[in-house]
C-alpha cells in the first residue's frame, strides 16, 4: 500500500488496498502537481449554478492536461446549466456520451415546472475512448448518501464506471470529493484514488481507520470547516 501522510497519524491497520488520499484545499491548488497524461479517469460531481462556472472552466482545462490519451472525464452535473457545461468541456475534450443517473425519487422543480426523475452525467474523453467494453448509459442510484454529506449522490452506477473505465492499480481523481465515499468504492475495487475538497467531507471517509489526508492550508477535522462555491437553495432545486 502506498500512503502519503503529511501529518503524524495514529497507528492503524490498513483496511483498503491501494492509495487513498484526500487533499484539503482548493482543487486548483492541491491538484496542481498531478502530472500531465497520468490519470485514466476523473470521476467527479462539482457544485452547480452560475457561481460554479470557473470551476467547470478549470476542470475542463485541467482534465485535458492530466488525463491520459483515451482517458475519461465523468462529470455529474445539473440540467439547468447543461449547455454551458458542454460548451466549456467541448473546448478542451471530446464529447463521448450523455449518461443519466436515475433519482430514487422524482423532484418537482419550481420555476422550471418539471418533475425531474434523473440527472445528467457528462462523459468526455481525451482524444478517443480507450477500451471497448460496453457501458450502460443509465446509472441507477438506489439511495442517496445524504446522511454522510448534504450533496452525496449515492453509489449507483459509479462502480460500473470504475470497473469499465479503469483497471486495477490505476488512478482515479475526484477534485470535488465531498465525503470521499467514491474513493472508498474505488480503493475497495483495487484502484488508487486522490480526492480534493475545500473542507473534509466528514462521515464515511473520516470513519475509516486510515486517513491519508494532505493539508493545504485548511483545518482538518471531522466537521466541515469551510465553504465551497455553495449552491443557493433555488439553484439546488434546478440541479
Ligand atoms: C456536489 S459536492 C460533491 C459530492 C460528492 N460526490 C460526495 O459524494 O460527497 C461538491 C463539492 O465540491 C466542493 N468544492 C467546491 N469548490 C471547491 C474547490 N474550489 N476545490 C475543491 N472542492 C470544492 C464542495 O465543498 C463540495 O463538497
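^ Assign residues to that structure.
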Amino acid at each position: 500500500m502506498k500512503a502519503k501522510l503529511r501529518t503524524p497519524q495514529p497507528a492503524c491497520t490498513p483496511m483498503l488496498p491501494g492509495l487513498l488520499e484526500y487533499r484539503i484545499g482548493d482543487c486548483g491548488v492541491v491538484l496542481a502537481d498531478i502530472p500531465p497524461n497520468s490519470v485514466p479517469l476523473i470521476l467527479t460531481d462539482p457544485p452547480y449554478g452560475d457561481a460554479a462556472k470557473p470551476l467547470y472552466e478549470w476542470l475542463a482545462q485541467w482534465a485535458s492536461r492530466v488525463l491520459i490519451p483515451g482517458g475519461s472525464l465523468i462529470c455529474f452535473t445539473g440540467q439547468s446549466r447543461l449547455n454551458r457545461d458542454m460548451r466549456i468541456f467541448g473546448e478542451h475534450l471530446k464529447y463521448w456520451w450523455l449518461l443519466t443517473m436515475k433519482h430514487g425519487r422524482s423532484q418537482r422543480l419550481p420555476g422550471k415546472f418539471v418533475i425531474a426523475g434523473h440527472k445528467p452525467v457528462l462523459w468526455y474523453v481525451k482524444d478517443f475512448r480507450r477500451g471497448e467494453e460496453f457501458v450502460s448509459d443509465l446509472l441507477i442510484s438506489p439511495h442517496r448518501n445524504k446522511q454522510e454529506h448534504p450533496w452525496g449522490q449515492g453509489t449507483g452506477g459509479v462502480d460500473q464506471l470504475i470497473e469499465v473505465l479503469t483497471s486495477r492499480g490505476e488512478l482515479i481523481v475526484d477534485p470535488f470529493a465531498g465525503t470521499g465515499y467514491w474513493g472508498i468504492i474505488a480503493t475497495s475495487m483495487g484502484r488508487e484514488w486522490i480526492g480534493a475538497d475545500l473542507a473534509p467531507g466528514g462521515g464515511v471517509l473520516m470513519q475509516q481507520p486510515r486517513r491519508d489526508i494532505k493539508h493545504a492550508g485548511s483545518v482538518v477535522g471531522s466537521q466541515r470547516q469551510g465553504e465551497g462555491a455553495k449552491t443557493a437553495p433555488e439553484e439546488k432545486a434546478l440541479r
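The two ends are 38 Å apart (CA to CA).
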